[in-house]
Amino acid sequence: MANETALAPAVESILAAARERPGGRERLSVAAQSLPAALERAETAGRVPLIAEVKPTSPTTDGSREDDPVALAREMVAGGAAALSVLTEPDHFGGSPEALRRVREAVEVPVLRKDFILRERQLDTVAADAVLLIVRFLEDLEGMVAAARERGFDVLVEAHTVAEAEAAVAAGADVVGVNNRDLGRLAVDLDTFERVAPAVADGVTLIAESGITTREDAARMRAAGADGLLVGSALMDGDVRANVERLTTPTNE
């Protein structure tokens, strides 16, 4: 399914760096907390299920956030985040495996590893509760999903098109993220989720990613079928806890 044509230069640069990064020296075996269960608990508690992302910087934002990742993570959980996402990509997003390790030790919610993982040994870089696998960049998606599960990870498989969502389901994904950002142009369109979501089978946990900045955006994605939201940049500007509280509060309150 890998298709690296017509990518934005920033994404090409990210992939080039990812190809050069080694994996872990030893095969991991993790005791993961369930990401879908955490989202369900948030919903039962009356909150919008949110995966809040510790995102120091990115190619699509200006500036960076220098706060300690653990301090940011604790504020996000205090604000009502059901789970966290931590960038481990160092060259373009300011992340690190060590930041994820520290965050996971400090919080009691599931932690997703957000990175551009291209081969199996890169799964062994650091323990997490879940890992992100991107359909567009993997030739053997089914094999990578299986390899991640063998290590104990939950797996969030990211798609952007109907064909990619169908490929994710065919590969056995039980958590599918629909990225509203087009990696070719880096443009964001919330219509993407609404168009792609129907291609995901019933019983699969569905996550809306990118471009969610307001409570109205959150409500729109939820109405279109999102079981959870993955939000990064919109949380990192200003008071992180207040930003999380805003997005986890349903619009009818």
Give an overview of the whole structure.
This protein is of the alpha/beta class and 253 residues long. The chain has a single domain, classed as Alpha-Beta Barrel (TIM Barrel), CATH 3.20.20.70. The chain has eleven helices and eight strands.
Can you lay out the helices and strands and say which pair or pack?
Layout: H1 9-20, H2 35-44, E1 50-54, H3 69-78, E2 83-87, H4 90-93, H5 97-106, E3 111-114, E4 130-134, H6 141-150, E5 154-159, H7 162-170, E6 175-179, H8 191-196, E7 205-209, H9 215-223, E8 228-231, H10 233-236, H11 240-248
Parallel strand pairs: 1-2, 1-8, 2-3, 3-4, 4-5, 5-6, 6-7, 7-8
Helix pairs in contact: 3-5, 3-11
Based on CA atoms alone, the radius of gyration comes out at: 16 Å
Q: CATH-wise, what's the superfamily? A: Aldolase class I
Strand order of the largest sheet: 1-2-3-4-5-6-7-8
What is the global morphology? globular
